[in-house]
Design brief:
2 copies of one chain form a homodimer. Chain A has helices spanning about 1-5, 5-15, 60-80, 100-115, 165-180, 180-185, 190-195, 205-210, 220-230, 245-255, 260-265, 280-290; strands at about 35, 40-50, 85-95, 120-130, 135-140, 160, 215, 235-240, 270-275, 295-300, 310-315, 315. With about 325 residues, chain A is an alpha+beta fold. The first copy, chain A, has a 7-stranded mixed β-sheet with strand order 7-9-6-10-8-11-12. Chain A has a 4-stranded mixed β-sheet with strand order 2-5-3-4. The first copy, chain A, is globular, with a radius of gyration of 20 Å. At the A-B interface, β1, β2, α3, β3 and β4 of A face β1, β2, α3, β3 and β4 of B.
C-alpha cells in the first residue's frame, strides 16, 4: 500500500500548496479546517462523487478529470445562485496509482482554482481495492432567501437554458462510436465539452434576484425539466425547434437525425435550466449577455397535466422514451 | 445497475427523513443545501472516508458502520473544540447491495443523529464496481480563535488523554486472532470499542478555552503524539506506566505482554490527546469530570531533541518500532 504509506508526503507535496490562500486549512496539517462566510450569507454546499468506470473513463487525462470534478459541483452552486468559495476533496486511489497521476491531477485542480477563485479547504486520501473514486464537497455562499431552488416554478413563467444543449452527450456518443482520437479530430469542441464542462459561475449573482426556479442540466434536459416539474408541482412544455444548438451539434444531427434524442435525454451539459417571470426575463437575459452568456427561451411553465414534461416540434408532440441520462 | 435506477427512491425512502430537522436540506430534493452557523462562529469541517476491506470488514453490521463513520468525524470536531451541526454523505455502493443493507445503515445514522443532535444536510449516492465506500463531511461550529490545533504545544505543558487507551486496537487484534464471535464472547467491551467508538463530543466546549493543542487518537497514541510534535515543533515525553487502561485491556496485556506495543501503536481510540498549561489543567480535568470524562496525565511537553516522542517505563526507555497504526 504505497499510497497510504506515502499519504502525508503526497499531501505535503501536491495538495497543501492548493490550500495556501485558505488560512482555515492550516496547510492541511490538521484533521479539521474552518472557512469564513461573508456576513449575512450562509454556506451553500454541493457534494458530487465520480467513480472510475461509472462516471469517467479510467484513462481520462487526470488534469481534465480534476477540472470535471470541480466544475460539476460549481455548476450546482451556480444554478442555486451561490458564489463559490472552496472545496473539500476525498480521493480514494488504487494502490498502484502513479505519483505522476497525482501530480497531473493536482495541476488540474490548481488551474481551476485560479479560473474560479477558489481554494482547497481540506479532505482525505485513502487507498481502495476498487476503481479510482473522487468525492468533492464544494462550498459557496449566498443569502439564504436568495437561493434558487427547483421548486419555485409557477404557471405562466418562461423556461430558458444557457449556452447550447447536447454538445457533451454528442461528444460522448462520438467517443464511444469512433474512439477518443478519431472523435477529437472531427469534433474537438464536442469532445471538449464532454471532458471539461464550463459551469456558469458568472451567472450566479444574476439568478439570485431574478430566476424563480433553476437546476443545472446534468441528468439531461428532459430529466432535469422533470425534476423542476416534480419539485414545483407544475408541467412544462418546450419546443424542440427552439433548442439552442452549436454548429457542430447541428452537423452531427443532420448527418444522423436519430441522434436528435440525445439532445433531450443526453446529460452532462452543465448549462443552467431556469424558469423566470416574463417581467424579470428581459433583465436576466441582458445581464447574462453582459457576462457573455446567451440565454435562450425554450418553452413555458403550464399547469396542464400532472407534473409532466411535454416536448413539441412545430405542430407535433415528440415521444420521449427515456427521461434521464444513464451513465455508460 | 439497480441502485442507480433506484437512486431517487432510496433517497426519498431512507435518507430524506434524516434531513427533516435541517430546513436548508429541503428534504434532499435539490443539488445544493445550505446550513446556518451561529453568529460570530465559523463552519468547522472534517472529511473522513472509509473503504471496505481497508477501514472496515465488508461483513461489519451496517448500523455499526454508519455510527463509526459519523463518530470518526465527530471525534475530529470534538478535538478541535467545535460543536457538531450536521453532515454531508457520499455513498458509493456495489450494484448488488441489498435494500436491507441501506435500511440498516440509515437506521444507524438516525440513532446517532439523535445521540449527537445532528442532521443529514445532503450528499450523493453512486454505484461502484469496487468495494463499498463511504465519505462523510462533518460540519460543526466554533469561534475561529478558539479552534484547538495540533500546533499549540509548548515546553512545560502537560500531556493528557481522555478515557482509556488501546481498547479498540486490542479488540481488533482479538477479532483477527479468534474471529468476531469468539472475541465478542470473551471481550465484548474491547470489540465494541473497535466497532463503535465513542467520540468525546461533550468535551469540545471545555477544550476551546483551556487546551493549547489537541488531536483525536486515530492513528495510534505515538503516531498522534508525533503529529503534535511535528506541528508544534516540540518533543514530548510520556510514561508508559501512566497510561489509563481498562480492566479488559489489563487482562489481555497480562495474558500476553507482547500486546503492550498495541497500546502505543494501535489506533482507533478516538480519545482526545491534549496538551495544557499547568494553570489550566486542573480546571480542564474538573470540567471534564462533570461530563463524566476522566482525563489522565501521561507526560510532558519538552524541548529536548527534534520533534521527538520519547516513551519511558519507570527508568527504561521504550523502543518504538512503528509510530503509526497501519490499516489491516
Amino acid at each position: 500500500m504505497a499510497l497510504i504509506e506515502g499519504e502525508f508526503g503526497l499531501i505535503d507535496k501536491y495538495f497543501a500548496p492548493l490550500s495556501k490562500s485558505a488560512p482555515g486549512a492550516v496547510n492541511l496539517t490538521d484533521d479539521v479546517a474552518f472557512f469564513e462566510v461573508s456576513p449575512g450569507l450562509v454556506p451553500v454546499v454541493s457534494v458530487d462523487t465520480l467513480v472510475g468506470g461509472v462516471h469517467f473513463f479510467p484513462q481520462d487525462p487526470p488534469g481534465n478529470l480534476a477540472k470535471k470534478l470541480i466544475r460539476v459541483s460549481l455548476s450546482d452552486l451556480a444554478a442555486s445562485g451561490a458564489r463559490p468559495l472552496g472545496y473539500f476533496l476525498s480521493l480514494s486511489m488504487p494502490a498502484d496509482t502513479d505519483e505522476s497521476w497525482v501530480a497531473e491531477f493536482a495541476r488540474g485542480l490548481c488551474e481551476d482554482q485560479k479560473e474560479f477563485g477558489i481554494a482547497l479547504f481540506g479532505g482525505d486520501t485513502t487507498v481502495t481495492s476498487g476503481p479510482l473514486s473522487l468525492s468533492l464537497t464544494a462550498v459557496g455562499e449566498a443569502a439564504s432567501d436568495k437561493i434558487v431552488r427547483r421548486s419555485g416554478a409557477k404557471p405562466g413563467q418562461r423556461v430558458f437554458v444557457t449556452g447550447t444543449i447536447g454538445d457533451s452527450a454528442l461528444g460522448l456518443t462520438l467517443i464511444k462510436k469512433m474512439g477518443m482520437r478519431e472523435a477529437n479530430s472531427h469534433f474537438p469542441d464536442l469532445v471538449q465539452r464532454y471532458l471539461v464542462p464550463n459551469p456558469r459561475v458568472k451567472l450566479a449573482p444574476i439568478l439570485g434576484n431574478r430566476a424563480a426556479a433553476s437546476i443545472d442540466i446534468s441528468d439531461g434536459l428532459v430529466g432535469d425539466l422533470a425534476h423542476i416539474c416534480k419539485a414545483s408541482g407544475v408541467s412544462i412544455s418546450i419546443d424542440f425547434s427552439m433548442l439552442p444548438l452549436s454548429t457542430s451539434a447541428k452537423r452531427v444531427i443532420e448527418a444522423n437525425p436519430t441522434n436528435k434524442g440525445i439532445l433531450l435525454a443526453g446529460g452532462d451539459d452543465y448549462e443552467i435550466l431556469l424558469c423566470c417571470s416574463p417581467e424579470n426575463s428581459r433583465e436576466l437575459i441582458s445581464k447574462a449577455a453582459e457576462q457573455g452568456v446567451v440565454v435562450t427561451e425554450i418553452g413555458r411553465v403550464t399547469n396542464q397535466g400532472d407534473r409532466f414534461v411535454r416536448v413539441t416540434e412545430g405542430a407535433c408532440v415528440v415521444e420521449i422514451e427515456d427521461t434521464s441520462w444513464r451513465h455508460f
